[in-house]
Write a structure and sequence with these properties.
By secondary structure, the protein is of the alpha/beta class. The protein has nine helices and seven strands. Helix 4 runs parallel beside helix 5, helix 5 crosses helix 6 and helix 8 crosses helix 9.
Amino acid sequence: MPHLDERLKKVAQQIRVRTHADIGSDHANLLVALLRSGRVERGIAIENKQQPLFHSQSALSGLNAEARFADGLEGLLAGEADSLSICGMGAESIVSILERSPERIPDFVILQPNRRPDLIRRWGFASGFHLVDEQVAFGHWPYVILSYRKSGQEADPAFQQIDHQADLLFGPWLLQRREPAFVALLREEQSYWQQFKQISEISLERRDAIERVLKRWSEW
C-alpha cells in the first residue's frame, strides 16, 4: 500500500463508497490506498496527460480499477461514480473542471485546492452542493480539504450569515470549530499582513476579515 501524506490521508478518511473517481491521480496513490483498505470497491483514475496516465495504469494493475485518458469529467459518465476527488490543483482549475460538466458530478465530492479555497466555497454555494466538512492538513503549507454533498435545498446551513465573507475566505466549519492550530494560522496571517503599509485589495479583504473574526472570538 502506498504511503499517503497527511493531506491525502485526510482525503481518504472522507471516502467509503462503492465506486470512487479521482481526477489528476498521477501515481494513483489515493485510489490504491482506498482499494487495498476496502474503503472503495472500484476506482477510476482520470488523467489528461500521457505520463501520469502510465503511472496510474501501472499502480492500479491487478486492482479493480482503471485509468482513463480524458479531460476532467469528460472521462466519467453521469451516475457512474458515487464520489469524486480532485486534489493538488489550483482552485481555478478545480472549479473549471466542475463547471464544464456539472451533470457528471457525483453526489459526494472531496476537493483539495493548493490555494484559494474560497473559490471552491463560492462554487459550492452557487451549485447546490452543501459543505459537510472542512479540514486542514499540514505539509509544505496548510492544505484545506473540503467535502461536499449535493442537496436539493438552496441555502447551505454551514454558512450562518454571521460574516459571510469570512465564511467564504476561511471556512464556516473551521471558524465554528476554532481548533487551536487553525486559530494559530489566522493569528500568524494577521501578523504577516500587519507588517505592510500598503497591500492589495484582495489582501486587505483577508486582513480585515481575520481581524473581525479574532475580535468576535475575543468578545465571546
